[in-house]
Design a protein that fits this description.
By secondary structure, the protein is mainly α. The chain has two domains: about 90 residues, Helix Hairpins; about 40 residues. Helices cover about 75% and strands about 0% of the residues. The protein has three helices and no strands. It starts with a helix and ends in a 17-residue tail after the last helix.
Length: about 130
């Protein structure tokens, strides 16, 4: 079991490093976009530089998009009704549903006990239904 946790930890670290790399690529792309905008703001626009920086920006954005798509695909596999060794989301969700069902059942039991055994489980006066006159 410790081996499984170690593998999961390494996998998580790898995913975080990949996200860090994607973030760096995005920062670089935004910097290139700023350079393109700066070039277009000059009085004498160098078309060659503008095209070169625009192409670089588009290439980086495409790489970021592909990497993010891969990450989203991985996350959709992990979270969508399939169990994953490192994921406890399904178990947490099931526990929440069970707690809600338990609370509902307790309220219904209490109401039934109040109705069937009013002498043992008195109903406060303000909560009793009014009898028609």
């Amino acid at each position: 079991m410790a081996k499984r946790e170690a593998v999961s930890s390494l996998d998580t670290e790898g995913k975080l490093k990949a996200l860090d790399q994607i973030e760096k690529q995005l920062v670089s792309a935004i910097k290139n976009c700023g350079q393109v905008i700066g070039e277009l703001g000059n009085e004498k626009i160098s078309e060659k530089n503008a095209v070169k920086m625009t192409d670089k920006f588009i290439k980086e954005i495409d790489e970021v998009e592909g990497a993010l798509t891969n990450q989203i695909h991985y996350l959709s596999q992990v979270t969508c009704s399939t169990t994953h060794e490192g994921s406890v989301y399904g178990q947490q969700k099931e526990m929440e549903q069970m707690a809600t069902a338990h609370g509902s059942a307790n309220l219904r039991i209490k109401k039934l006990m109040e109705i069937t055994h009013p002498d043992k489980f008195p109903v406060p006066d303000g909560c009793r239904p009014q009898k028609p006159n």
